[in-house]
Amino acid sequence: MAATWLVSKSLENITEMELHFPVTGHSFLPADRVFGFIETAVRKEQEILNPLHYNSIIGKYGKVCRIGRD
Known about the structure:
This protein is mainly α.
């Protein structure tokens, strides 16, 4: 898709494009830390029988919006 755009739609002065793909473990964004905290908290639970328990775990680290309710 990028090559097609480069050939047919790009400006005349654009002749080259460089793509960067994310590498696991190389991101230091705040959202990645939150996902890590959630993953650690979920792993510490012996069992989760109710989906609302996930909401309570995630709610400790961020805002939980439920579709159709919030």
